[in-house]
Amino acid sequence: MTPSDAPQSRWSDLDRPPLNVPALRRGLLRPGGLWTALDVVESTGSTNTDLAARAASLTEGTVLVAEEQTAGRGRLERTWTAPARSGLFFSVYLTPGTVPAERWGWLPLLTGVAAATGLARSAGVDMALKWPNDLLAAVGGEERKTGGILAERAGDGVVIGIGLNVSLRADELPAPTAASLALAGAVSTDRETLLRGVLRSLEHWYGLWRDADGDAAASGLQEAYAAGCATLGRTVRAQLPGDRTLTGEAVAVDGDGRLVLSTGDGLREPVSAGDIVHLRGAGGGLT
Known about the structure:
7-stranded mixed sheet
């Protein structure tokens, strides 16, 4: 079998080469840094599930990347699938032991800020955040979901997974509301460059937040999230636990990371969990 015939060879898809693990380790693992281990697997069900299963034996800063995820999970048990090597599918393990546990809820929002700022630099794409953990990019003037974040408690820490569409073509998108960095006009779709950019940005923001004992305001995280949040200022519909629905204007993200809605009766109600839909207006069209 020649290299060009090997299904998993470096040359099987010139547009989507595999990640260079030694180069990533050289660029990210350093004494005193947050990232302590980095592995890449060809295919797995879910990097979050894999890390969570090994949480008891992991050191903080462990990174697991998959070239392909066959059972990737989003919020509310939704699935996340994409062609092999078409995106970044990875999870990290963090143990913010000195931060009060009630502040750990900021970690997915922190990861959103880190991913958005890291991708703005490395991909040249202006990313926006949809509360609580979607990454949006503009395609044809329309905001579309380009990535998502899922945080789960595991052992003494938290596993945070990121799924990001990088080189997906229009006919490969899972839904018409989805997008990829390539479709958003990224100046680079080199996944090693993008992964380094996101992980370095995550190390920066996590360090600021942890040094402030998880205080989102003192660390600058709350302000940064609000500045990049496309949900604020919009009329939204929140599908809440217990089949309750709430519609109102998203006016703030409070100190606990909750989305504050101003409803028609003048009341302000914080939402800590729920499925948020951006509305265009009274007609309820999706944005």
